[in-house]
Amino acid sequence: MGKEEAAEVLRIEGRDVRITHPSKPYFSQEVRLSKLDLVRYYLAVAPGALAGIRDRPVVLKRFVNGAEGQPFYQKRAPEHRPSWLRTVTLSFPSGRTAEEVVVDDAAGLAFIVNLGCIELHPHPVRTGDLDHPDELRVDLDPGPGVRWEDVRRVAMEVEALLGDMGLRGWPKTSGSRGLHINARIAPRWIFTEVRRAALALSRAIERKVPALATSKWWKEERHGVFLDYNQNAKDRTTCSAYSVRPLSDARVSAPLRWEEVPDCEPADFTVRTMADRFAAIGDPHAAMDAVPGSLEGLLELAARDEAEGLGDAPWPPHFRKMEGEAPRVAPSRARSAGGGVRRPRAPRTKMPLAVVANSPDKEAALEGLQRWKARHPEAARHLTIDDVLVDSMRGGSSTWTRIRVNLRHVPEAARPAPESPDPDDDPTRRWREARRAAKAARGG
Fold this sequence. Notes:
The chain has about 450 residues and is α+β, with helices and mostly antiparallel strands. Strand 7 and strand 8 form a beta hairpin. It has helices spanning about 35-45, 45-55, 105-115, 150-165, 190-210, 270-280, 295-305, 360-375, 375-380, 430-440; strands at about 10, 15-20, 25-30, 30-35, 55-60, 70-75, 85-90, 95-100, 120, 135-140, 170-175, 180-185, 215, 225, 355-360, 390-395, 400-405. It starts with 7 loop residues before the first strand and ends with a helix. It is globular, with a radius of gyration of 23 Å. Strands 5, 6, 7, 8 and 9 form a five-stranded antiparallel beta sheet that branches.
């Protein structure tokens, strides 16, 4: 067995931070970057990166085996941590609490990157008031096949609407396929009110550009760019500015000026380019804290929607059922009215979905999709890009890929008969079967 690599100790603003396994590969495909390379990147852009996370609880998303490995989320602060690293106790919708890390300086930033935190995931609150967010988050998430220029067009519509509502939006690339627009707000509103404002904004953009944008939560109902209002629910986090994303080119979530948005390209912003950009232009979002705004305009818009019969939209699955929320069930699984089932506020179309593959190996699931298309060429010919739903599924300790096809555009005569998925390896099936058996044994 080879000798373990010695840690490298960095002296950062008067504090020593140990970087363990400094040469461990964290990116090894399109670009090659070690753990120490990532630490040095974050130190080079530290004033900008810290502006997005300072004085906020941070969820640790740890890629301990590098960007190509499977990450895990750690809410609780590590037991062994420097005495100077702050923590704060956060409560969650489940009723549980966790002592989370708070990063205030470059040394703390280097410490969490050493833990494998390629991305930075702060909550939208400050430690002095954990119940009132100071940030409205607009997440533009393009569906399969959506053109980047359409994402940029939706972003410009969001900027205009925020301006009409008395808010200033600050855009950044997500570091993947989308755009994020954050607006600083006064910490006067609780999480449910901020989410309600985000939902009103999403619906308003959908009305403005219905061919490009959607506020629909269920994937089978979406098209174009999804405005994910639920990113404003309590306990949800998104990657902050300057976060490195686990893509092969080490792409970065880059803060932008609005005049850059119409021509920006996400691939231009990587670990290799961002330090030079930061040195040349500084942080485009440096003035964000100076202009907090009000949610009153968006909440008035929400009240008008509700007066016209638009109820609440679905929440994330781990939240309790909310007052005014329609049944939290995908349209393809919704039961028809009757039998004691309450009618939704608006009619819903049950989508004809077929599960074609389940596998912990995404590539194996995609190969199963191709076999399904080969078996059913006539049905496959009618599918649009939005009709193929690739879902990342998560159980208690397992993850897998589920692939479904929406047959809504396939004539009924050409729709294949139900068949078993291929492959069909759902890691939670055995647990669910055991649970049903135990329930039956109890007479329930």
